[in-house]
Design brief:
The protein is α/β, with parallel strands linked by helices and about 260 residues long. The longest helix has 18 residues. A hairpin with a 2-residue loop joins β7 and β8. The chain has an eight-stranded mixed beta sheet. It is built from seven helices and eleven strands. α1 runs parallel beside α2 and α2 runs parallel beside α3.
Length: about 260
């Protein structure tokens, strides 16, 4: 099984299917994974297999490393399209996430004002006011909502603390449209149980909730790299296109990544 553990606090740039030339900002340790989910499809592997020994990068380290990398990229004449908070787990878990967002916006404005600041989050910390306020400042606030079915969330996303999808949905609405919903669609089985969320049983309730959240955009995607759980399969291009088209028909911009 192959998994990816990213350098910290800066990695890349990499070419993202959805975002373009992306310079990664990893607020988690460089030698392991820290996440409030333990998704069976995570490219970083299962939490228990990658327990970190190093501490979280401190605010000053993140700012210093980011500025150094942006200077290098400016000298090379290739600035990023986006500064993306991602990496080895959930970025909003960092105790100084809000302050780091402020630092990053300042550095973006100084070195690459055309670039966007983007956060990829599993949504588990959006009940925290500081996290909510920080996400309101970024250009692309991309929040995960793989389904609205609690049993599927427990089986696939595997939260390691109390997770109430109804409360998550209400907190998503509180962004007043400043939100991009990201949803993983896949097929196959895990531990003898189906994990197919491309069927109507899952898609229609999900779509109805998306309509109530009123996001600025939806991103649907599928497995792109090797997964820690065996038996998972990509959703087909036809399935993703069909879901995408239903979102668009509801008046919400939507992209599909295969």
């Amino acid at each position: 099984m192959s998994t990816i553990i990213y350098p910290s606090p800066i990695f890349g740039p990499v070419h993202s299917r959805r975002l373009g030339i992306s310079l990664g900002i990893n607020l988690l340790p460089a030698d392991g994974k820290v996440c409030s989910f333990d998704c069976i499809y995570c490219e970083c592997g299962f939490n228990e297999d990658h327990r970190p020994t190093r501490p979280l990068p401190v605010r000053e380290e993140v700012s210093r490393s980011l500025e150094q990398k942006l200077r290098e990229m400016a000298a090379e004449g290739q600035l990023p399209d986006v500064l993306t908070f991602a990496g080895n787990g959930e970025p909003t878990c960092h105790p100084h996430f809000a302050e780091i967002i402020d630092d990053t916006i300042q550095l973006r404005d100084k070195y690459c004002p055309k670039a966007k600041v983007c956060v990829l989050s599993n949504s588990t910390m959006i009940h925290r006011q500081q996290v909510h306020d920080a996400l309101m400042k970024v250009d692309d606030n991309i929040l995960k909502l793989d389904t609205v079915d609690p049993s599927y969330i427990k089986k696939v996303d595997r939260p390691n603390a109390t997770y109430d999808v109804r409360l998550i949905i209400e907190r998503m609405k509180a962004f007043n449209g400043h939100i991009i919903i990201q949803t993983m669609f896949m097929r196959g089985e895990c531990n003898g149980e189906s994990v197919d969320n491309t069927c109507e049983e899952y898609v229609n309730p999900w779509l109805e909730v998306v309509k109530t959240i009123k996001p600025q955009q939806v991103m649907v995607y599928t497995i792109d790299r090797e997964t820690p759980a065996q038996g998972l399969e990509k959703a087909s291009r036809e399935q993703l296109d069909a879901i995408r088209d239903r979102v668009i028909a509801a008046g919400i911009p939507c992209t599909a990544s295969y």
